[in-house]
Here is the input.
Amino acid sequence: MDLLALADFNLVAVHGGFGRASRASGQPKATLSRHVRELEDSLGVRLIERGSRTLRLTEEGAVLHARTGSRIGEIAEALQDVKAGLGRPSGRLRVSVPMLFAHTSLGPLAAAFRDAYPEVLLEASSDDRFVDLVAQAFDVVVRVNPPDSDLVGRCFLRNRQVLVAPPGLARPAAAAQAGPPARFPAVMRPGVSDDKPWHVVDEASGQEAQFHPQAVLRLASPLSIRDAVIAGAGAAMIPRSIAVDALASGRLVSWGLSAEPAAEVWVLHGSQRLVSPKVRAFVDFVCDYFDKEAKRDVLTQG
Here is the structure.
């Protein structure tokens, strides 16, 4: 079977006609028609019913398109790499990352990746929703605690939550058994209840403690919450990755790490076998980038 003819068949099927497929790909309409006809001849079945104004896939054509359409682009790209004898990363790479990752890490990461792979055009967008790679034409997604799916990839960062406070805020003492728990002013996200205590582990002693927040301010962005705590509004539970600099400089103090498991940050892609050079390069680069960051080494401890 001619895989290029198969790719042209899927192109016509996706666009719903030879004319639209020709305009989208830049290939002559006659070339697309000839490739599809050659594919039909090689299979011995008709794949497309051609009308004067309409085009319809036959039952066999619909089956072939359903089973090959999502992978043919990767196959064609791999064939081109092998044929050229290159296998080096090149072309456009579309990536979706969470908003917080975009604000804190994407800029320097993207610049470093550009230096390492100048033939790859990295195009990143930020979205906290779990996007559909095929439907939205993304090559890679970065997500926190991703749900089970058909995507594959690697976890490159484990990020604990830390209870931080401004240096001038007194740390609550342990409550007496007979009295109500001591509450403290807290900056929290909208919709998060302050009825439940925050359980933390002291980083030095390993002892567990619990603190009872009293919401005095609610902000949606973790970065805004951090900045409000630095300004003295109260204490807050935030990702340690965005608190490390303020903790090191003394603008924030830690009351302990959250007892909850660390959040896992994954870089994911859709193919399990045919991974294009640009996708493989980006996945490896992200993992190596965070491994080499001394700051990230501190963040992943514990």
